[in-house]
Amino acid sequence: MQYQVKIQRYNPTTKEKYFQIYDVDLDEKLTILEVLEYIKEHIDATLTYRAFCKSAICGSCAMIVNGLSKLTCKLNAVDNLIDGVLEIAPLKQFDIIKDLVVEQDKGFNILKKAQTFMIPKAPPKDSEFEISPKEVESYDKQTECILCMACYSDCPAVENDENYFGPFTFSKILRFVNDNRDSIPNQRIDKTMEGNIFSCIECQACIIACPKGLTPQFDIKNLQTKALSQGHQNPNMQSFGNFGGGFDDFGGFNPNGF
After folding, report:
1. Largest CA distance in the chain
2. Of 114, 92, 113, 94, whose CA–CA distance to 105 is shortest?
3. N or C: which end of the chain has fewer CB within 10 A?
4. Which CATH class name applies to 2-102?
5. Helix axis angle, 185-194 relative to 216-229, nearest 10°?
6. At residue 129, what are phi and psi to the nearest 5 degrees?
7. Which helix (H) or strand (E) holds 19?
8. Is the C-alpha dihedral spanning 230, 234, 235, 237 positive or negative?
9. pLDDT tens digits, one per residue of 36-82
10. What are the extents of the domains in the chain?
């Protein structure tokens, strides 16, 4: 099948961004990543992108496809054409290294700041931690995040608030808050406030972007509820409370004020 692939290029030496169009005639079964591989091998060896597992596990091949962040190894190229064109660009919210490769340290540094790793309690004497299936269910889905950062790329709150942790980080925080082996659940809730968790605008762009079917926006709502129950305040209540109405604890409009 014949179609065009429009790829954003970036020259780190000249700092120039531009789109380059490649005409291809390829098998309809190819993934977007396989199309990029074909272009690099047969048309333009200078094209630079990041990929590894090709199995939707490592998350390294996330890019912008026709305006939305997607995992390119997972998607059929032909199915994502718009008027016979496939437009590919690097993830948003990150500095570009070259072409489709971005510097992901920004995201990983947020994870470190948020302490998204287990800080365990001392195990019971002469025993092990007991974990019920119900408890595992409360955080099992969040462990499937592959850190592709597609949700971060498409998040309007990240674009508008430089201190906002972003969807994948909040999902990681909830994973440990719900694990009774962890020793600092309250401090983790405090961390969500440092990360401006109430900056979420509930657009659900993160849910659309996630290639693993996770629901970060619902995780954020869960953490917001826990933060309120722990005594934290939603700053949006203060911002809108003087207008005789405003937003309630869960983001809905409250015409009666506070």
Report:
1. 67
2. 94
3. N
4. alpha beta
5. 110
6. -65, 135
7. strand 16-25
8. negative
9. 999 999 999 999 999 999 999 999 999 999 999 999 999 999 999 99
10. 2-102, 105-253
Dihedral angle computed from the Cα positions of residues 125, 126, 129 and 133, in that order, rounded to the nearest 10 degrees: -140
C-alpha closest to that of 148 among 195, 107, 200: 107
The enclosing H or E element of 153 equals: helix 150-153
Q: How far apart are CA 92 and CA 89, in angstroms?
A: 9
> Cβ atoms within 10 A of the Cβ of 227, count?
19
Residue 114, C-beta contacts closer than 8 angstroms, at least 6 positions apart? 165, 169, 172, 173, 188, 191, 195
Cβ–Cβ < 8 Å for 92, 100: no
The amino acid at residue 25 is: D
Distance separating alpha carbons of residues 91 and 212, to the nearest angstrom: 17
CA atoms within 13 Å, Cβ hemisphere of 177: 24
CB atoms within 10 A of CB 238: 11
* CATH number of the domain located at residue range(s) 105-253 in this protein: 1.10.1060.10
This prediction has a pTM of 0.88
Q: State pLDDT tens for residues 159-193.
A: 999 999 999 999 999 999 999 999 999 999 999 99
